[in-house]
Amino acid sequence: MGIGKMGLPMSALVAKAGYPVTAFDQSAARLALAREQGISVASSAAEAVSGRSVVISSLPDDTALRAVMFGPNGLVAAMASNAVLIETSTVSADASGDLDAAAHAHGIAYLRAPVSGTASIVHTGALTCFVSGPKDVFDRVHPVFAAFTRAQTYLGPGEEARYAKLAVNLMIAVSAAMMAESLALARKGGIAWQDMLKVLDDSAVASPMVKYKTASLRSRDFAPNFSCAQMAKDLDLILGAGHAVGVPLQLAAHVRETYGSLIAQGDSETDFIATVRHLERLSGLSEPKL
């Protein structure tokens, strides 16, 4: 359910593993793409999930989750009792908790399974995911997870997976802001663009996330794998979660303002590493020589 940039390649991987897959999306264009890849499509959400033992959803936000899942025409009401719902979106613990209650009332086993990774790597099967919910159900459907993710970390019976995803994305957002400041400072200090990227790649801070972004920054590629608007949405979820559990997230709040500025400047659909260009503008730096 939901075959956008993440959901469609995930569906293709599940089908490639030998499982019968039926997909649905509100977008006729996405349904057409699914047909081109040999995936069966349904005419409605209810048709897609009717009689299915496992349903996987990939949705953009809390609003979409509530619209798709709840109510008399929602997915939960249409699913078979004893079916398993694997929900892979990045959503709030509150929305997820409401879904848990609705699923339980209909006899559906609910697994929170937000995935980590970008649209550019989904088709390779390199996504990872965090899972929480009934452990016995996770063990039973583990082969389905293995069809579209390379690693799965089970974290507990409740909303633990939601907090894990937000915690990871918080570090990614702060890292993007940190890289922007570091690169601007280095350029002001006279270091050539490619030289400083090599310094980062060869240094103690060369995490997978840093190397993932230095690769695109070498050619100044800001095409969105994960946009500024998406990062702002996740930071809103992160800040809401922090408020809910009493954790002050001062860095998250600061970085959220940075993404607000980027969106206001027209970079909503630019990749989230556009923090680099934002700091360059603030620092009076022009485009570097490549």
Describe the overall structure:
This protein has helices spanning 7-16, 28-36, 45-49, 62-69, 75-78, 93-105, 135-148, 160-188, 193-201, 208-217, 228-245, 250-264, 275-283, and strands spanning 22-23, 40-41, 54-57, 84-87, 109-112, 115-116, 128-132, 151-156. The protein has 290 residues and is mainly alpha-helical. The protein has two domains: 7-158, Rossmann fold, CATH 3.40.50; 163-283, N-(1-d-carboxylethyl)-l-norvaline Dehydrogenase, domain 2, CATH 1.10.1040. The chain has a three-stranded parallel sheet with strand order 3-4-5, with helices on both faces. Strands 6-7-8 form a three-stranded mixed sheet. Helix content is 53%, strand content 10%. The model has no long low-confidence stretch (mean pLDDT 96). The longest helix has 29 residues, at 160-188. GO terms for molecular function: NAD binding; NADP binding; oxidoreductase activity, acting on the CH-OH group of donors, NAD or NADP as acceptor.
